[in-house]
Amino acid sequence: MTRILFFGRVAEHLGPESRLDLPVEGVSIGEIRRALAARDALFASTLLRPDVRASVDLVVVSDETLARPGEEIAFFSLFSGG
Q1: In what order do the strands lie in the sheet with 52-56?
Q2: How many angstroms separate the CA atoms of 23 and 35, rounded?
Q3: 3-state secondary structure of 9
Q4: Which end of the chain has fewer CB atoms surrounding its CB within 10 Å, N or C?
Q5: The pTM is what?
Q6: How many degrees, rounded to 5, is the angle at CA 32 between CA 4 and CA 37?
Q7: 3 state SS for 10-66
């Protein structure tokens, strides 16, 4: 299971992290976002907002970027601060 981290407003709604099984060959950030959003309405309303960004290993990425097990994946609101 891969840890998915949440920061800012996203963490306020969903907690600090979640877990998801990722295939070894990788999966796009958009697919991860949709898989998490399918869990329930709160995940969907939080993660599918246009101002929620993602990062892989501390680099902000697009939904087309592949993520693999062992990489740090995070979702955060545009104005998380820090």
Answers
A1: 17-20, 2-7, 73-77, 52-56, 59-61
A2: 13
A3: helix
A4: C
A5: 0.92
A6: 90
A7: HHHHHCCEEEECCCCCCEEHHHHHHHHHCCCHHHHHHHCCCCEEEEECCEEECCCCE
How far is the CA of 70 from the CAs of 24, 52, 55, 57, in angstroms? 10, 22, 13, 9
Length of the chain: 82
d(CA 12, CA 28): 24
pLDDT tens across 34-60, in order?
Answer: 999 999 999 999 999 999 999 999 999
Give the closest residue to 36 by CA, choosing from 26, 50, 24, 22: 22
Please give the Cα distance from 82 to 71 (Å, whole number).
Answer: 21
For residue 68, with 0-12 CB atoms within 10 Å meaning exposed, 13-18 middle and 19 or more buried, which class applies?
middle
